[in-house]
Each structure stands twice: as C-alpha cells, then as structure tokens.
Amino acid sequence: MLKGKSVLELSVSHADKGSAVTALGRSVDAVARIYFGDDVTDEDAFMRMRRPQDVTIKVGTGSTAARYRLDDEAAVARTLIKLWQFCSAAHVPS
Questions:
Q1: Bigger pLDDT: 76 vs 92
Q2: Residue 92: is its pLDDT beyond 70?
Q3: Torsion angle, CA of 75/53/16/57, rounded to 10 degrees?
Q4: Cα separation, 2 vs 26, whole angstroms
Q5: Containing H/E element for 81?
Q6: Which residues pair with 37 in a beta bridge?
Q7: 24 CB contacts (<8 Å, ≥6 apart)?
Q8: What's the pLDDT score for residue 14?
Q9: DSSP 12-62
Q10: Contact assessment for residue 66 and residue 57, using Cβ atoms and an 8 Å cutoff
C-alpha cells in the first residue's frame, strides 16, 4: 500500500510506476523517455529512469529523485508545447 495525494495504491504483486515505465519503454524500443510526476507514487519511476537520455520532472514541491523540477501544471503545459514545437521543427516522428 502506498499513500499519495488523493490516491491510495494497492497492489497484490510488486508493481509500481517504475516497473511499468520500464516495461513500456522496452516494449516500444524507446530511445528516450520523459516522465512528469507530482506525487510520492511517481518516485519509483524517477528512480528507475536513470539513463542519460531519460528526463524526469517533479511537478511541485517536496523531495524527489527527479532530475528536474517545474512549479505547477501550467509550467508542464508550457514545457509540453515547447517540446512539441521543437519536435515539429526538427521533423521528429511522433
């Protein structure tokens, strides 16, 4: 059992967001992964995503294993728009 912001995660087997993001990345042969999270339930993903090309971003306050931090959801939206614009200009396949 893991308590977070307005959420309680219950699991019969050991599974967390870290193992999920790792399995998903492997299944689609991801070269890089980006992960935004605002809760203690996201810390497993932050800790598992340690490759140099991975980007982990904590949204809000609190201690974290993420490499970067944004203040709030509005900053996430601005960051995603900039990333989309960069990828569009570089003709990166989506």
A1: 76
A2: no
A3: -20
A4: 25
A5: helix 73-89
A6: 58
A7: 30
A8: 73
A9: SSS--HHHHHHHHHHHTT-S--EEEE-SGGGHHHHHH--STT-EEEEESSS
A10: yes
- Specify the amino acid at residue 78: R
Express each pLDDT in 29-63 by its tens digit. Answer: 999 999 999 999 999 999 999 999 999 999 999 99
* Tokens at 82, concatenated: 């900039």
Phi, psi of 19, rounded to the nearest 5 degrees? -70, -35
Which pLDDT value is given to residue 45? 96
* pLDDT above 70 (res 25): yes
Quick one: which of 35, 81, 67, 30 has its CA closest to 16? 35
| Contact (CB, 8 A) for 54 and 31 | no
